[in-house]
Amino acid sequence: MVNEIQVDWTDLPIKDIDIGTFLYIAYLLIAAYIAVRVLSWVLMKLSERAGVYRISVTMAIPLLKITIYTITLYLFVTALIEPSLSQLVAFAGLFGAALGFGLKDIFADVIGGLVIIFERPYQIGDKITAQNHYGEVIDIGLRSTRIRTPDDSIVTIPNYIVFGESVESANAGKTEMMVVIDLYIDSESDAELAMNILKDAVVTSKFAYITEKLPYTILLDDFPFYKRVRARVYVNELRYEFEFMSEVTRRSWMAYSRAGIRPPQVQRVLPEKAGRDERTDGSLNRSNSGNLSS
Amino acid sequence: MPDGPQESAGSIAASLFQNELETITAAIESYGKKTHENIAIIADPFAGQQLVIEEIKRRYPDTISYLPFFSVVTGKDFIPNLYTAKDVVVMERCHFLALRKIGGFVMLDEFLDFISSSEKLFITTWNSYSWSYLNAVKRIEGFFPEIIRLPKIDDMTLKQLILSRYENNEIECIDDREVEKNSGFEVIKRQVTLPFTSAPITIPWITFNVGATKGEEVKAEDAVFRRINTLADGNYGVAQRIWDRYLEYPTMKMSNLPDRPCALDLSINEEFLLNIILSMESIQLVDLVEIASPEINIDQNLHRLIKQDLVEEEKGYYRIKPEALNCVCNYLKRIRMVW
Q: Per the CB < 8 Å rule, is B271 touching A252?
């Protein structure tokens, strides 16, 4: 024998709905929206003053959002009906079927949001690459994640991508982040001197962060018509990533110029893609003919 | 540090740094009998490394050669002096050997090359922030197996040392705070600046009196020195400066002492300049220009730091104001400008 759950939907204990109920729901939604906005703003401001703990503070924002939204949903439902257990089970089944057919993408986004909040593949403040977009995570919502690209565009990425695509986090919740700086010099130039100058430029930079666990490395790679001098070093605050690269490059080339180190003379052999793209294309471990490190 | 007689400096050093002096003394006296290890004495600005060196000079006037640096070292002139120096060489303010710029480690490398092949015993003093930086960048601790970090001073020792400069009962300490003195906490008025507001506002702020227990009367004298030591973060030189500055002879009032709040909000260039000044302890404008120009407008940024009471200028040298030292250090650590 199979016991069937018999639900009489006509018996659903729907409360009396009047204008007061609508007002209550409206106030509820407005209050939840304001609470999310205000608390997120306060936490973001607090995080800016927290120095190296900035990202730890911002971690609380998505958690706070889901808590407020869950409470709001509960209050919303109980304002309209008072379901029994069997009705709740039946409703959940029906709701699941509806999601499966019509709202599956939104549902996947919401579940993705929960995964992001609890598993933390990235956090607010992290620098990530997702769906070919690179930038700083500025918001993790229930449905989507928003990132700010280096040229100040806001990109909205659906949360479901955490299930099927790889997301690269450059700093993994830390405020420091490794930066790769490449300088290309003429094959005839003094490569050792070039490495020493780049090393000095890196370690004396106002943006550098060097410890025993976070050392810097200077690498030399020899190509047919040029040499590449590469620095791998941590920036003390990931928001200064590009300023750091720019400052080191500028100071290094000023010193190179004084030392007679020249850029490659044949323009057509310059690599098409430098910097970040090369960091992820596997060329990092190619034959290094020399290195300096802390 | 006081410019008093050597005996006075020696007795203060003996009180503050007894263990450290014993280590140095043992190293000097065992020199030649067993393998020696070069010594690095590391301390925050004003923390008393000069007292230690004065005491070593007093104890071993004929055994040591004293080679101090007073500003950034730009030439190799000091190297010949190392060849002709006695077997024990005391070198003060070695952080002046390195400049944070491209090519700025040449003098330090020369010095490290020299001591690598020398049989002499080197006793050196370093600014703690320069040491951390140079150690991260150049691994200099490998050249100085014996590292001595000067400890922080406690409230009672500070009280004894400062009051020893006066006759008994010559100084009167007054705890004239308005709050209940022996409560576990006190409410003070504190100025804060909210985001997007220009003028600071005053809010009530609770501070906890650690160590003040109910029913126990904290003597005004003890309360004053506790507050001074908290402001100085256990740094003897800073505590002494605070005492000298806020003493209205023969009275020291608690209400005269500055509050602890420290809310800095600086630009990256100001932070970097502050870091350089902190690491070098005192530095001339020309050296700041050498390090940071043309990337940073030195005059403008220095002006802002001086206006914020963080930096002071004395005889052409810029340094962190002793009263602001604790605040500056904590801020720069928080943003990872010092490591």
A: no
